[in-house]
Amino acid sequence: MKLVAYKDWSPTGMDSKGLNTHPGGSMEDFADWLVVSLKGYDQDSVAQSNWEVMTDHLDSIDPEDMEHSIHGFNHWAYEFDILLVAPDSDALNYVTECREAIENYPLLDDEHHSNLEAEKAEEAWVSYGANEVEGAVFIGLSDKAEEFFEDSDIDDYEDLEELANEFGFVLPKFPSEEMPPGMPWTPDGSSVYFDAPACAEWWVENTEVASKFMDFLDTFSKSDFKTLEEFHIYISNHNNTPALPGME
Q1: How far apart are CA 7 and CA 26, in angstroms?
Q2: What average pLDDT does the chain have?
Q3: 71: which strand partners?
Q4: Cβ contacts of residue 140 below 8 Å, gap of 6+?
Q5: How do residues 119-170 score in pLDDT, each as one tens digit?
Q6: How far is CA 123 from CA 48, 79, 127, 202, 227, in A?
Q7: Those residues with Cβ within 8 angstroms of residue 28's Cβ, 6 or more apart along the chain or in another chain
Q8: Per-residue H/E/C for the chain
Q9: pTM of the model as a whole
């Protein structure tokens, strides 16, 4: 698609073309510059990566902004930035090469895109992912525990930790401040998505203590102890924790 001069461009069909290009207007000097692309605040990681790669390179070849310019618009429908380049310029030659490259392959820089998605995942983990997955971990482990111990009262992760401690397990603190390497996630528009139950299962399987505790619950369910009370009585009478199969 041919690039359009800013004076002939509008964000939507309901907007005036060449906003503020009138004499004395803030965009008067850019009326004949060409509209390259828009950066919306909800764009996916591919579009964001290409924008950053392109604008970073333009900054390097045109540090004085003589041939390219970025302008922010507080549009009635959505906020966005717009990239303009001067006609007959090195900046135009570069963005033309970029546009042609994207026609054959969606990314200008695979490594940049990969790093960007990793950063988004880390931000999303701290913002909301960790809380959702921790809740799923608790639900999964507590349901397993309550399945075997009908008299147990497990209302939060601390209760679960206390129960684990009674069997000699110290459940690890959930990594809410930093996403564990390998935690599964998928791109989701401008952010990422954590499938909480699947992530919780991954965390348990890949966290040795939590995994062993889950295995222990399975082992315990096959033992002669059917309630937590029975287990407590045994401990009080024998002053030691019984050795169950698989817990050597």
Answers
A1: 12
A2: 83
A3: 82
A4: 197, 200, 201, 204
A5: 999 999 999 999 999 888 888 777 776 666 665 667 777 777 777 777 777 7
A6: 16, 22, 6, 20, 42
A7: 20, 21, 22
A8: CCCEEHHHCCCCCCCCCCCCCCCCCCCHHHCCCEEEEEEECCCCHHHHHHHHHHHHHHHHHCCCCCCEEEEEEECCCCEEEEEEECCCCHHHHHHHHHHHHHHHCCCCCHHHHHHHHHHHHHHHHHHHHHHHHHHHHHHHHHHHHHHHCCCCCCCCHHHHHHHHHHCCCCCCCCCCCCCCCCCCCEEECCEEECCHHHHHHHHHHHCHHHHHHHHHHHHHHCCCCCCHHHHHHHHHHHCCCCCCCCCC
A9: 0.74
Quote the tokens at residue 242: 């019984």
Count Cα atoms within 13 angstroms, Cβ side, for 161: 8
Structure token digits, residue 144 = 């397993």
Angle at 231 between CA 225 and CA 232, to 5 degrees: 160
